[in-house]
Write a structure and sequence with these properties.
By secondary structure, this protein is mainly α. The chain folds into two domains: about 80 residues, Orthogonal Bundle (DNA polymerase, domain 1), CATH 1.10.150; about 170 residues, hpI Integrase, Chain A, CATH 1.10.443. It has twelve helices and three strands, in the order αααααααβββααααα. A hairpin with a 5-residue loop joins strand 2 and strand 3. Helix 1 packs antiparallel against helix 2 and helix 2 packs across helix 4. It is globular, with a radius of gyration of 22 Å. The termini are far apart.
Length: about 280
């Protein structure tokens, strides 16, 4: 079976049998296209060959990205074995190489306020940034939020996360006020608004790419030199919550992490912050 046909069958399996969302299936597809491009003889590879592939993944990738790519490879080979396309599974027991897990880049509280306080923001963009920082949602989650998902009375937001899982996230008073202002001054005046919360001038939902560009533009306009993206606000929220005393389990619920180990990386960021403050303030440093 050629690689394209095998990948197509695997994606159908993920979508119709496993019930994966289109975004998750596409993420698997992208990782496997990279793998198949580098390993076209995928049907004849053994475990040492797969381990060698893992070692050739770009050094700049974060540990989570490497682990995700290898998880896609393992799932692919498990499927091929299940379908009797291969006689044995060479990916069984495949693990990610030992890498240094890099801490995520975050904004300081001052930098966050600097962006949110920028005077040139439209009501929509201000609400968008306030929501990113208030709820810590992924960019794909933000693009999918509908107006009906915002509970102003209870100050909660319904978020659809990975695997179509839903969670309720607290909505800060500032984010709630910014969204109301956007509804009153801009969104309510659109001729045929869609169901999504954040819309373009034509009334269509903002795409993930559009949100990314908005964040980039506004961060640069606020004089932020860091490489800022929508996910930077998610990292920043988690770090600031832990710095202010929030427990890891609560932050895990807010972010929608399936594994608490993913959330615990922010405790490392917070410890690094404590070290910097200590080094700057201690009289005998």
């Amino acid at each position: 079976m050629n690689a394209a046909a095998a990948l197509s069958k695997f994606l159908e399996y993920l979508t119709y049998e496993r019930g994966y969302s289109p975004l998750t299936a596409e993420a698997y597809a992208n990782d496997l296209r990279h793998f198949l491009k580098n390993c076209p003889a995928y049907l004849t590879l053994d475990k040492p060959a797969l381990e060698k592939y893992a070692e050739t993944l770009p050094a700049h990738l974060e540990y989570s990205s490497v682990a995700r790519k290898l998880a896609a490879v393992k799932a692919f080979y498990k499927f091929l074995y299940r379908e009797d396309i291969i006689a044995s599974n060479p990916a069984a027991g495949l693990t990610a190489p030992k890498l240094t897990r890099r801490l995520p880049q975050v904004l300081t509280k001052k930098e966050t306020e600097q962006i949110l306080a920028a005077p040139a923001l439209s009501a929509r963009d201000n609400a968008l940034l306030e929501l990113l920082y208030s709820a810590g949602v992924r960019v794909s989650e933000l693009a999918g939020i509908k107006l009906a998902d915002v509970d102003f009375a209870e100050c909660f937001l319904k978020v659809r996360g990975k695997g179509s899982k839903e969670r309720l996230v607290p909505l800060s008073s500032r984010a709630g006020a910014a969204i109301r202002r956007y509804l009153d001054t801009e969104r309510g005046k659109l001729p045929k608004p869609g169901a999504e919360l954040f819309l373009s001038r034509s009334g269509r939902a903002l795409t993930r790419q559009m949100v990314w560009l908005i964040v980039k533009r506004l961060s640069a306009a606020a004089g932020i030199l860091k490489n800022t993206s929508p996910h930077t606000f998610r990292h920043s929220l988690a770090t600031h919550l832990i710095e202010n005393g929030a427990d890891v389990r609560t932050v895990q619920e807010i972010l929608g992490h399936a594994n608490i180990a993913t959330t615990q990386i922010y405790t490392s960021v917070s410890r690094e912050h404590l070290r910097r403050v200590y080094a700057a303030a201690h009289p005998r440093q």
